[in-house]
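Q: I have 346 residues here and want to know how they pack in 3D. Can you give me a structure?
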Amino acid sequence: MKAVQVTGYGGVDKLELVEQAIPEPKENEVLIQVKACGMNNTEIWMREGAYGTEAKSGWKPNGVHFPRTPGSDTAGVIVKAGKAVDDALIGKDVVLFPFTSGGENGLEHISEDMSFIGSEYDGGYAEYVVWPASLCFEMPLPSYTESAVFSVSGLTAWHMAEQIKIQPGETVMVTGANGGVGSLNVQIASSVFGAKVIAIVGDLALEERMKDLGAAHVLSYKSERLAEEILEVNGGPIDSVLDVVGDSLFAISLQVLKNGGKFCTSGSAGGQKTELDFRVLYLKHITLYGSVLGTREEFGRMLRAISERKIKPVIDRTFPLEEAKEAQTYFKQSGKTGKIVLLPGN
């Protein structure tokens, strides 16, 4: 089979297209023929070693064992089953829950032994991948490409919304609203939880697209009056912030939050370090949340909402597997709306 491997920490030159044997499923695993694999910041940062602080590392501090095939948002069809797996699963269209964990239900995403597909295991930048049968879920939409855009970014966005307990009628500001997680934050907060969403983007040419996804107001982070504009469109301070950019909008976010407001972050594309005046935090009774991924039960709830068409796939562009370098380069450009998807076999 064809696969794309990361051969070490560095730029896209560390991505190599190789021919290798199709993997064999272990006793409790299945072999999936990959039909589509969505792209995430996680595999970019894994390659760049950006999760580390003093030294480069992958998803886990002890680093990545190279070569490694990245890719976590995988959709495909089961073509072979391990000895302990029911053969009735063969032929099923599935999406993959993106990590293994020994944590008990509801806490699996914060377990110390959490291991990520595409970082600790070979992932979906390949024509075939093996994965535990218990972590394969029924595909929520008829299209492989559309179903492949939710596993990591969708679960992350869903968990963020559940974590801050969004209530109907509350105002939620979404940063990076045109990105993979951000565009899902807009939809989940508005369509599933009934919030009024203020979407923050760079280019206001995206306004209608954001409103189609459920945003009530669309503002540009480039505005010198952004904090004032947020307060104006909402008629006062907002209830919460769902953030994926980090430093660049952190101060404004705290400024526009109400007393008792909530700030939840799952990314730092706009800066990994920031300054915090603790007086703002405690005088306004603000709660800060860090959030990555979520639980298997949340994954199931998200897939049901997708199958009910409450959440729509937002896809910017697709690439064949052989153009993984070009796809990751394009991924890092600004101004996109939604996900980038690799299509093995095309």
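Q: Anything worth noting?
A: Residues 151-163 form the longest helix (13 residues). The chain has ten helices and 17 strands.
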